[in-house]
Amino acid sequence: MRGIYDTAVLLAVYNGETYIQDLLSSLKKQELSDFDIVVSDDGSSDATGKIIAHEILRSNIPIHSLIRPSTDERGAKGNFLFLIESTEAKTYFLCDQDDIWFSSKMKKEKERLDELRKKYGDDLPLLVFSDAEVTDSNLKVMSPSFLEMNGLSGERTDFRQILIDNVAPGCTMCFNRALREKYLSGRVKSYDSESLELIEMHDHYLLMIASVFGHVSFLNEPTLFYRQHEDNEVGAGGEGKAAKIRRNLSALLSGSFKKDKTEFIEKKKRLARAMLCFEDIPDEAGKVLSGFLDMDRMKKSERMRFLKENNIGRNSHDLWFRLFA
């Protein structure tokens, strides 16, 4: 495998024989023609490896397989971070094994990333993300917008909002080498199970890094079919206001409401701790994230004031968050 790629599609796979051929076919149809696919298999026991090997032999797109240093399964999070750690490129795309990319996806996202490069230079972490059409396993569209389906806004890219709501699934992302280098300077690594616990998912972590240390841009259109099926490690979710209210009322009646909200906040605190591992974190971000971790020491009124003054909250259902943070 060569040293540094121009554009690398990082494909994390695990028992993906059912859908991976559809994904690979969509990659072959990309309007952006000059890219390499780098694959890491998390220990598949089905025919995924054979399909990949066959594609390596016959595809007109360069496909490279990485050998994991351990046979222990790390899940999508650890597998993608391993790919990032192991691959040097100028431009990166993250790729799930079961989606279908629109033919213009890579071209449009890379063009937006190049606009950021011209505006800010290429030495800062830069990340572009788009929307996605959510489908069932047979590609029937369930929602034309992942973001709308989940009550999210792609315009909320300040780290204060990203801390609470991840607006960008990894499969919609395109980012530069500087973001990869900044990630490497942190303490969360794919081979460190303890540090991996600090972050819920790799895409949320990368989005936070780009927002805190660089720039994030939202391409306001769907660029892929985000396929949902029973084997998704993390799904598209999607919960309307009525369903949210019913779920919260049910949790209140069952006595699990406070526990559920506490667990949600604890996940966000772990992400804040992961960000504070960066020794060169900007003063403002460090102050806000440290304050977020110290909220347990505040009175209820002080916590709510802190969240409001720092604009930390959710795009929707924000009242629940601020009342129980």
Could you characterize what this model shows?
- The protein is of the alpha/beta class.
- It folds into 2 domains: 224 residues, Spore Coat Polysaccharide Biosynthesis Protein SpsA, Chain A (Alpha-Beta Complex); 84 residues, no CATH class.
- It has 14 helices and 9 strands.
- Helix 11 packs antiparallel against helix 12.
- The longest helix has 19 residues.
- It starts with a strand and ends with a helix.
- The model has no long low-confidence stretch (mean pLDDT 90).
Q: Compute the CA-based radius of gyration.
A: 20 Å
Q: What is the architecture of the largest domain at the second tier of CATH?
A: Alpha-Beta Complex
The CATH superfamily of the largest domain turns out to be: Spore Coat Polysaccharide Biosynthesis Protein SpsA, Chain A
Order of helices and strands: EHEHEHEEHEEHHEHHHEHHHHH
Ranges where pLDDT stays below 50 over 5 or more residues in a row are: none
Percent range for β-strand residues: 15-25%
- Quaternary structure classification: single chain
CATH topology of the largest domain: Spore Coat Polysaccharide Biosynthesis Protein SpsA, Chain A
Topology:
Layout: E1 4-13, H1 20-28, E2 36-41, H2 48-58, E3 63-66, H3 75-86, E4 88-95, E5 100-101, H4 105-120, E6 126-135, E7 141-143, H5 146-149, H6 159-162, E8 173-176, H7 177-184, H8 193-196, H9 202-213, E9 215-227, H10 241-254, H11 257-275, H12 283-293, H13 300-309, H14 318-324
Helix pairs in contact: 11-12
Summarize the model shown.
This protein has helices at 20-28, 48-58, 75-86, 105-120, 146-149, 159-162, 177-184, 193-196, 202-213, 241-254, 257-275, 283-293, 300-309, 318-324; strands spanning 4-13, 36-41, 63-66, 88-95, 100-101, 126-135, 141-143, 173-176, 215-227. The protein is α/β, with parallel strands linked by helices and 325 residues long.
